[in-house]
Amino acid sequence: MWWGVGAALVANVLYSVGFVLEKRALGALPALSAGRPVRVVVTLATSPLWLAGSLALAAGFAAQLVVYRTLPIAAAQGIFVSGLVLLLLLSSAVLGERPTGRERHALGAVLVALLMVVASVREEGEVVGAEAPWGLVLLVSVPTLVTGVALYAQVERRARRRHRVPTTGIGYGVAVGLLYGVSSLAVKGAAGRLTGDGAGGVARALLGSPYPYLLLFTAGAGLVMSQTALQRCRASLIVPVCTTVTALFTAVVGTPVFGERLPDDPLPLFLRVAGTALALSVLLAMPRHDPPPPAGDTAVPPRAADRRTRSFIPANDEDSHGHRRDPAAHPGLPPRQGPAHPARRPGRAL
After folding, report:
1. Nearest C-alpha neighbor of 120 from the set 274, 343, 346, 322
2. Nearest CA among 178, 184, 164 for reference residue 292
3. Alpha-carbon torsion 193, 198, 199, 205, what sign?
4. Cα–Cα distance between 200 and 204 in angstroms, integer?
5. Which residues contact 155 (CB under 8 A, 6 or more apart)?
6. Please, which residues bridge with residue 167 across strands?
7. pLDDT exceeds 50 at position 183
């Protein structure tokens, strides 16, 4: 079991570094749109920094396979979410993101809740599930995927409205978290089937199950959706929300699906149930919109400033002393407009 704890800590570091590198790279890329998935992939592939972040995430995925073979689902999710502390530190140091006081308190409560889940793990009484009925996996996975994609589309429609309040990305994080929750179930199932005789046996065992196909869908859709959302929102908020939803879904749904029972002792049972309920309630109470800009911030966009400058140009072309001015010398005039009275060209002598 300690191998699983070590692998989970390594995965935390890799995931945090990967998300921060990707967020840093997205700031220099053109605006992404989930409605153009091919363009999103091509644009991301042109960024070396983003590719480095994706390699770190891929290495974290490999470490996750080790975790699910040695730890119960609930314990694994608790350790994964504890990596949010490292993510917040990196996003503050590298990206310069500053969460609000309410958000810091909420994330602190989430960490307390998930530490309660970790404290509920008892090595001697835990059962690590490996197999699950495929029909049951699909029964919980397909509706969850549909819900996640529909929620993301709804948030996208709201984001296109004019005069909207800036969103913090809570909806994006919940939608992507649902997809990654299904991905975690698929990773758990795939890890349990890596026991065939040789590479051929492992390949047949995987291809004969729904897990690789769920992974392909969640990897493709999750890539487009998560990177578009990460470009628009703060990593210090959207990644913790996504991670919390993923952890809660995987722990609550994956535990019965893979036959892993809850603790029998009252105290561990209370810690696991209360920690899950606390994390979910904090997530629901987090602000949906960014606070408005300070009242003293009166910065005027360049176009507005240009219109303001034009409004102070007198309607006539005379100055305060009554002298005729050359309108072309004033920047408030429309482009390519010449003097009101152009100088006459010297004519031919008669």
Report:
1. 274
2. 164
3. negative
4. 6
5. 167, 171, 172, 175
6. 289
7. yes
Q: What global pTM score does this model have? A: 0.69
Task: Copy the structure tokens of residue 65.
Answer: 């396979």
- Report the alpha-carbon angle 37-14-116, nearest 5: 105
Euclidean distance between the first and final Cα of the chain, in Å? 108
Count of residues in the chain:
350
- Give me the pLDDT at residue 93, please: 77
Q: Render pLDDT for 24-34 as a digit per residue (tens, 0 to 9).
A: 999 888 988 88
Query: Where does residue 248 rank: exposed (0-12), middle (13-18), buried (19+ CB within 10 A)?
Result: buried
Nearest alpha-carbon partner for 237 in 200, 283, 199: 283
Element (DSSP H or E) covering residue 52? helix 48-70
Cα 23-53-56 angle, rounded to 5 deg: 140
Strand partners, 289: 167
Residue by residue, DSSP assigns 206-226 as HHTSSHHHHHHHHHHHHHHHH
